[in-house]
TrEMBL record:
Family matches, as Pfam families: Cys_Met_Meta_PP (PF01053)
Protein name per Swiss-Prot or TrEMBL: Cystathionine gamma-synthase
InterPro entries listed in its UniProt record: Cys/Met-Metab_PyrdxlP-dep_enz, Cys_met_metab_PP, PyrdxlP-dep_Trfase, PyrdxlP-dep_Trfase_major, PyrdxlP-dep_Trfase_small
One annotated Gene Ontology cellular component of this protein: cytoplasm
N6-(pyridoxal phosphate)lysine, modified sites: 204
GO molecular function, a single term: cystathionine gamma-synthase activity
Lineage: Bacteria, Bacillati, Actinomycetota, Actinomycetes, Pseudonocardiales
C-alpha cells in the first residue's frame, strides 16, 4: 500500500487514498490507463510493476487502494461486477463438500450463484435468518466454511449483528463475509467488527451515479487476499480502466451523499408513517424496528433505503409505483436519483413461492439526493 492513510478521516481518504498526483505529469486526477499491456525494459524488466492489464492496471490499483482505505482493510480487489466478486470469494473459500450459511433474504444473485452454480460443484448451503444469532449458530455444521451476511437486507431492511456473527464464525472455524453494499463503508465498518471479508457491488452507492457496474472484495487477511487475487487473475473478472475511473470518481463524494441519502430517507419515513394508505414502514432508524438497537450500535446512520407496505395489496402498490414522477421505476439502487420498485414483481420475482417471498404489498425506495420536499411531494401525490 502506497500511503498509510489510517490517520485520515473518511472524506479525506475518499479523496486522497491511492490518488496522489501523477508523478510524471502532475495530473491531479488518476489517469485512465487505457492500455492492455506495458513495455518492458528487457525481458522481465517491468518499469513500475505493471505487465498486463488483466493482472494489474494503475487506474484499478488507485481504486483498490481507495476501497481498502475506506473499509479500513489492508487489501482490496476490484471486479467487473458485484457478482464477479461474490463468485471469486465463494470459489476461493469453498471446496466440494463444504457448506455455506446464507442469510434468508440475501441478494437474489448471491442465492442463485449458490443454488444454481456452486451446488453443481458440490458446495452445500443453508439459508437462515441471520438477524437471530442463535439460529445462525444452530445452522453451523462441521463442514461450514463461510457465513455470508447482508445487513441491512434487501428489501425488508433486516439487521444482523456483525460482531456476534463474527464470534459464531470464529468458533466454527469459518469465515464471515459481509456484503456491505447497502450500508457502505461510510455508515458501517464490518472488518472493524470482526468480519473477514467485505464485499461490495460498487454499482450501487460507491459508484453512486448509476453509470457503472463493478464489485470489490476487501480483507486484511493476506492469505485470503492472495487466493482472491489468484482466482481473479485466473478467471479474468476485472473492471476496465474507465470503469475503475468512474467508480473512483463516484467514491470521492460517498460521505456527502450518504449523509444526504440518510437525511432524505428520514424525511420520507416521517411522511409515510401515519399515512392512511401506508400500513407498514421498514427502516432500521425507526425505534420499533426489531433490529434498531443493533443498527444504532454498528451503523453511523441508517442509510437511504426505505420499504413500505401499501393498503390494498399488490394492485394498490403497483398503482403507486406507476404514479410517481420523480421516483423512477427501476431496479438497482444507490444512485443520486430516487428509484421506486415492486420487489415481488421485479428484483425479487424469483423468490415467488419460496420461503423468501416478499409480501406483494411492499414497495422499495432507493432515496436519492434530490430536494427532500420534492421527493415527499411526489410520494404523497402517488399515494393519492
Ligand atoms: C447489486 C447487488 C449485488 C450484485 O452486484 P452487481 O454489481 O449487480 O453484480 C450484490 N449484493 C447486493 C446487496 C446488491 O445490491
Amino acid at each position: 500500500m502506497a500511503d498509510d492513510t489510517s490517520r485520515w478521516g473518511f472524506e479525506t481518504r475518499a479523496i486522497h487514498a491511492g490518488q496522489r498526483p501523477d508523478p510524471q505529469t502532475g495530473s491531479v486526477i488518476v489517469p485512465i490507463y487505457a492500455t492492455s499491456t506495458f513495455a518492458q525494459d528487457g525481458v522481465g524488466g517491468l518499469r513500475s510493476g505493471y505487465e498486463y492489464s488483466r493482472s494489474a492496471n494503475p487506474t484499478r490499483t488507485a481504486l483498490e487502494e481507495a476501497l481498502a482505505s475506506l473499509e479500513g482493510g489492508r487489501h482490496a480487489l476490484a471486479f467487473s461486477s458485484g457478482m464477479a466478486a461474490a463468485d471469486v470469494a465463494l470459489r476461493a473459500m469453498t471446496r466440494p463438500g463444504d457448506h455455506v450459511i446464507l442469510g434468508g433474504d440475501a441478494y437474489g444473485g448471491t442465492f442463485r450463484l449458490l443454488d444454481k452454480v456452486l451446488a453443481h460443484w458440490g458446495v452445500e448451503y443453508t439459508t437462515v435468518d441471520l438477524a437471530d444469532v442463535d439460529t445462525a449458530r444452530a445452522a453451523v455444521q462441521a463442514n461450514t466454511k463461510v457465513i455470508w451476511c447482508e445487513t441491512p437486507t434487501n428489501p425488508l431492511l433486516g439487521i444482523a449483528d456483525i460482531a456476534a456473527l463474527a464470534q459464531v464464525a470464529t468458533v466454527a472455524g469459518a469465515r464471515l463475509v459481509v456484503d456491505n453494499t447497502f450500508a457502505t463503508p461510510y455508515l458501517q465498518s464490518p472488518l472493524g467488527l470482526g468480519a473477514d471479508v467485505v464485499l461490495h457491488s460498487t454499482t450501487k452507492y460507491l459508484g453512486g451515479h448509476s453509470d457503472v457496474v463493478g464489485g470489490a472484495l476487501i480483507t486484511s487477511d493476506p492469505d485470503l487476499h492472495e487466493q482472491f487475487g489468484f482466482l481473479r487473475n485466473a478467471v479474468g473478472s476485472v473492471p476496465g480502466p474507465f470503469d475503475a475511473y468512474l467508480t473512483l470518481r463516484g467514491a470521492k463524494t460517498l460521505g456527502l451523499r450518504m449523509e444526504r441519502h440518510s437525511d432524505n430517507a428520514e424525511r420520507i419515513v416521517e411522511a409515510l408513517l401515519g399515512h392512511r394508505k401506508v400500513t407498514k414502514v421498514y427502516y432500521p432508524g425507526l425505534a420499533d424496528h426489531p433490529g434498531h438497537e443493533v443498527a444504532a450500535k454498528q451503523m453511523r446512520r441508517f442509510g437511504g433505503m426505505v420499504s413500505f407496505s401499501v393498503a390494498g395489496g399488490e394492485a394498490a402498490a403497483l398503482e403507486v409505483a406507476a404514479r410517481t414522477q420523480l421516483f423512477i421505476l427501476g431496479e438497482s439502487l444507490g444512485g443520486v436519483e430516487s428509484l421506486i420498485e415492486h420487489p415481488g414483481r421485479m428484483t425479487h420475482a424469483s423468490t415467488t413461492g419460496s420461503p423468501l417471498q416478499v409480501p406483494d404489498d411492499v414497495l422499495r425506495l432507493s432515496v436519492g439526493i434530490e430536494d427532500a420536499t420534492d421527493l415527499v411531494g411526489d410520494l404523497l401525490q402517488a399515494l393519492g
